[in-house]
Fold:
Amino acid sequence: MQWGDEGKGKITDYLAEGADMVVRYQGGANAGHTIKVGDEVIALHLLPSGMVRPGVISVIGNGVVIDPETMKKEIEGLVRTGRSVENLRISDRANVVLPYHKVLDGAEERARGKKGVGTTGRGIGPCYSDKMSRSGILMGDLLDEEYLRDRIETILPMKKRLINSLGEEFDINPEELVKELLEYGRIYRDKIIDTSILINDYIKKGENILFEGAQGTMLDIDNGTYPYVTSSNCTSAAICSGAGVPPSAIEQVVGVAKAYTTRVGAGPFPTELHNEMGKILLHQGEEFGTTTGRERRCGWLDLVVLRHATRLNGPTSLAITKLDVLNDIDSIKVCVAYDIDGERVEHFPGSAPKMESAKPIYEELKGWKSWSEDTVELCQQGIEAMPREMRDYISYIEKDLGVKADIISVGKERDETIDLRPDRWSA
Ligand code: GDP
Ligand code: IMO
Ligand code: MG
Structure:
């Protein structure tokens, strides 16, 4: 719902208990989804969080950009933990992140200088650019030597010229690249299929399918803080194009929202805190990037952002995460509007200079610090035992957005989750 890193991995893993299939539909290895299972901490970048649940079919849809090298490492990591990747399926239409995309990502960032986006360096922007300009290589192409060679021979010289024009050296032998890609094709041959057919067959059979988003609404290429965004659509609308399913198939949308706000990388962030409170959120929330290890910028919850995200994603319910991080705070601020050039604004503006000049207007809510009991334990006893101030905080958000929160997360563990869903899949 905000700038990502809000616990999508945890919530997806939690909901995956009752799911038959988990599908990633956009983004790439820029994502970092952390799941805690007992003593194990599993960080996934490309593989769907369903991989952690035995028996669940995990699908990487056509809208994802796949770095085959990262995927190989991630698969090897999961196998080392004793997990099977038998149930992984990869779309033949997904674009491949190639070595020159990563080189270009770095070169473009260096060329932007101080105005850099602060990308993850995973080649995401250049890969999606190639997809749009029809110079991409698809996962299915890795299975057709002749066609692949032809594509690489056409595309590679353009890429070399582009990289050189940015003042960087780049030389890669087309034949070696073809060889490397064919090897990945050989490795993944059994998994590369038309995943849209598979997913739609599951839909017809009435199976439970969970679509796992990456990044966050404010990083969406169309609706985020452009140009400080990622290169895909991160809103729920992307499920359809990125997984090959019709809008009518989507029954529920769960908006995962952290109880405060963070952002990694550059760009506008109206409620960012440059003070002691920002440091408290950073350390209590362990806000260090899963993918790049960077410190996440921290700030108060921003209802202007959440209203924007609610309008765009149409969540049928919310999953509010990391409420425990606010345990030791006396008074919690919530941004209800911005002051932009002396005017009160309640909707997120479209232009970067306006976003930069937005000053948050806050309301203050009482925290639950005064409770001497372990609030996580209280929450685990159910909503009635939850500190009243925590319930008030949740109700305040629900009321403003007009959406109910039916999953509340107060810790990393699966059992640190309060589930108020009336129709739990797993029941
Ligand atoms: P994602 O990108 O949205 O999947 O989120 P990340 O995994 O990048 O970041 C969320 C981090 O917060 C992870 O380290 C999770 O283990 C952790 N986390 C998730 N939910 C909670 C929670 O309710 N409380 C606390 N303290 N940590 C949480
Ligand atoms: P998850 O799924 C937070 C940010 C980067 C950068 C911008 C563009 O874990 O929530 P890119 O490499 O995508 O071209 O970088 O987007 N970014 C994320 N921030 N969480 C993510 O994923 C992100 N993926 C990309 O920091 O500002
Ligand atoms: Mg993350």
In short: The mean pLDDT is 96. The chain has two domains: 8-86+194-419, 95-188. The pocket of guanosine-5'-diphosphate (ligand 1) is lined by residues 4-10, 32-34, 36, 290, 321-322, 324-325, 409-412 (CB under 6 Å).
